[in-house]
Write a structure and sequence with these properties.
Strands 13, 14, 15, 20, 23, 24, 32, 35 and 36 form a nine-stranded mixed beta sheet that branches. It contains 17 helices and 36 strands. Helix 4 packs across helix 5, helix 10 crosses helix 11 and helix 12 crosses helix 13. By secondary structure, it is α+β, with helices and mostly antiparallel strands.
């Protein structure tokens, strides 16, 4: 196995995580993200892990990369100068949104601004109907005239989204061909390729988002490939996509919107792998880094997926207040709660935390890089969770005095000293995350008391124990490599691509031959993308249809077997739908026709078999010679917590809380209510103390 060397890289808002696997051995590091040129942090991290492993970059066989750059560009609106071309009469779709109001009773409700201003949106006279038939032909001279008009604007990228183009893309392709001749330097994104699905608002917005970030991401990926090659790492580079699989660098550069949420998707894959090793069917994945916290439900060792999610929610993280992106994605809730999340006291004299983050530049006050406002990491340091001399493996020395000063400023309006302000800040951020987990569970009809939490990310092990107390979750697993979990997840993910189509069909008008041909065509498309990553690996197809009762506003996903996809019939589809509908809502609706709106085929390579964790031998109490004061949130006062190096724990060794289990990438806080035991694979298993 020594000849198979793979590297996973995750660029986060604060840290860039790099993991190198040399056969069975694993080496990792965390370096501060370099915003101006993100590839610099990757190069730095690569040299660090190569030095640890005793290899050169030229020996790396494969690099898998995930990043928040696409997400951040959308949130911060740092994309290219972009235009939208759409059907006459639909210029304002992305501004009008839908009829939904995310805050129903707010008379002064401010809707988020569209990604493109009105003067950057153009129309052409053409029309395709809901069956894909041409009602108004598109004239080439009209396209040429528009191209000539737009030439003077200096657009870098153009999104093309026409009504019902998901059924008939001929007009969109005609526009692309003319623009390729007239404006060859402008990048083009077609809605029929980016998101070929019904619902024009979501489809247009997704295509605009793809066009908006395409120049930025294409430039970055090109620079990254060049820099890595210059450093000797000329191996293939792949990207993690939001659906939990891996695509080629070329596909990622063409469809960068699929990279939105790629980092968090890697974390969910990592947690699913741990769940499989422990035979757990109900897992709450908790990923907390420097900027955000991500929570995902994993059932039967598979993360829950969705077709639409929102970026940059602007109103208290409420559904509907963000930018909808219609692509396959792992379904999770993400909130602005990370180590760098900043705190302030609002007009109601309440401590608020996030979503604004100090990031890596300047970072929390304790980083000593110019930050003066209090962040979650400042609170963690003041409460005793962190060792100022051994943060990030000792690469960053934390300034406890600067943290105390920032927290003192936070607490002054509330007559709190620095430690009580830190306690308040930590409780607020933990309660925010607990509330997000509760809401996510309720939305999915789940009881978290039945779940096991798996925590990873640099900040998650510091907060997961307290989160379990708040949520009533009895068991917490912190796997090895938790501090760089998403990067490890990239190395566990399969090559995959999901093709989707919107073809409306009622079961009363079910056409088996049409269905068989449609699914076959989509399988060929999805398999083609996967073949660009691996030309020889066996590929399996997973089939899904989205169904609803006629007249309902939304659909539910129904999984099909390969046999059901090859031999489709209405009775089978109805039985599958009614079974899943009953599971979700408790009953079916008699006397109503059922319709299919969206079809999906996911082509994926096989995931490597997971070796289950063996029995844990009887161990002993962990050896410890050191302790420090750790603030106990239950008692509201400091208590002596033993300090144990994770590397010194043998399988079966245990430690009772309050305790701190330390390693280079993170620290595991074991609350006074819990006991931790080391499992054979190095995972720390934390459960409630039994009386």
């Amino acid at each position: 196995m020594q000849n198979h060397i793979r590297m996973g890289v995750d660029i986060g808002g604060t840290f860039t995580d790099v993991v190198l696997e040399v056969g069975e051995a694993q080496f990792s590091t965390k370096v501060l993200t370099t915003y101006a040129a993100p590839e610099n942090a990757i190069i730095d991290g690569m040299h660090q892990v190569c030095a640890k492993a005793g290899i050169t970059p030229s020996q790396i066989n494969q690099i898998i990369h995930g990043t928040t750059l696409a997400t951040n560009a959308l949130i911060e609106r740092r994309g290219a100068k972009t235009a939208l071309i759409t059907t006459e009469g639909f210029r304002d779709v992305i501004e009008m949104r839908t009829e939904s109001r995310f805050e129903q009773y707010d008379l002064n409700l401010q809707l988020p601004e569209p990604l493109l201003p009105r003067q950057h949106r153009f129309t052409l006279k053409e029309r395709i109907d809901a069956r894909g038939d041409v009602l108004i032909p598109l004239e080439r001279e009209h396209i040429e005239a528009l191209a000539d008009e737009m030439a003077s604007y200096g657009f870098e990228s153009v999104a093309i989204g026409l009504i019902h183009a998901y059924l008939n893309d001929s007009h969109e392709r005609m526009i692309r061909d003319v623009f390729a001749e007239k404006l060859p330097d402008v990048m083009i994104s077609l809605s029929s390729e980016v998101s070929p699905q019904m619902r024009e608002y979501e489809r247009f917005n997704t295509t605009v988002a793809n066009a908006y970030i395409k120049p930025l991401m294409k430039s970055y990926l090109g620079r990254l490939k060049g820099r890595l090659a210059d450093e000797g790492a000329g191996c293939p580079i792949f990207l993690m996509h939001s659906g939990g699989g891996i695509i080629s660098l070329e596909s990622a550069a063409e469809f960068p919107v699929r990279l939105v949420e790629s980092g968090p998707a890697g974390g969910a894959v990592f947690a699913a792998n741990i769940a499989a090793r422990y035979g757990l069917n109900k897992v709450l994945s908790f990923d907390m880094g420097g900027t955000t916290a991500k929570i995902c439900l994993i059932k039967n060792q598979t993360p829950k997926t969705a077709r639409v999610f929102e970026v940059a929610r602007t109103y208290r993280f409420k559904k509907g207040s963000g930018m909808p992106i219609s692509i396959p994605v792992i379904d999770m809730v993400e909130i602005g709660a990370g180590g760098g999340s900043l705190a302030h006291v609002d007009a109601m004299r309440q401590i608020r935390v996030g979503p604004e983050s100090a990031g890596s530049e300047p970072g929390p006050a304790c980083y000593g890089r110019g930050g003066a406002r209090p962040a979650v990491t400042d609170a963690d340091l003041t409460l005793g969770k962190l060792d100022p001399d051994n943060f990030a493996g000792g690469s960053i020395k934390l300034d406890a005095a600067a943290a105390a000063q920032a927290l003192g400023t936070l607490g002054a309006p509330l007559d709190m000293d620095a430690r009580m302000a830190a306690f308040g800040l930590a409780e607020v951020v933990d309660e925010n995350m607990a509330n997000a987990a509760r809401v996510h569970a309720v939305e999915n009809g789940e009881d978290l008391a039945d779940y096991t939490m798996i925590a990873f990310g640099g900040a998650a092990p510091l907060h997961a124990g307290r989160l379990c107390e708040k949520l009533g979750v009895d068991r917490l697993l912190v796997p090895t490599g938790a501090g760089v979990g998403s990067a490890i997840g990239f190395l566990r993910a399969p090559f995959s691509f999901e093709a989707t189509r919107s073809v409306y069909m009622k079961l009363s008008d079910f056409a088996p031959e049409t269905v068989r041909a449609l699914l076959g065509e989509m399988e060929v498309e999805a398999t083609g993308f996967v073949r660009t990553c691996d030309a020889n690996a066996p590929i399996k197809a997973e089939y899904k249809v989205y169904m609803r009762y006629t007249g309902q506003g939304w659909e539910i996903p129904i999984a099909l077997t390969a046999a059901q996809a090859a031999n489709p019939d209405a009775a089978t589809f109805q039985a599958l739908f009614e079974a899943d509908y009953t599971t979700l809502f408790g009953r079916t609706v008699a006397g109503m026709d059922i319709e299919i709106t969206v079809w999906a085929v996911n082509a994926t390579t096989e995931v490597a078999a997971v070796e289950t964790v063996g029995a844990t031998p009887n161990g002993k109490a962990a050896d410890n010679t050191d302790s420090r004061a750790l603030f106990d949130p239950i008692k509201g006062a400091p208590a002596a917590a033993v300090i144990v190096r994770r590397a010194n724990l043998n399988s079966g060794d245990w430690v009772a809380g309050p305790a701190l289990i330390t390693e280079d990438e993170t620290t595991i806080v074991v609350p006074a209510s819990r006991t931790a035991i080391a499992r054979p694979d190095g995972t720390i298993d934390i459960t409630e103390k039994r009386t």
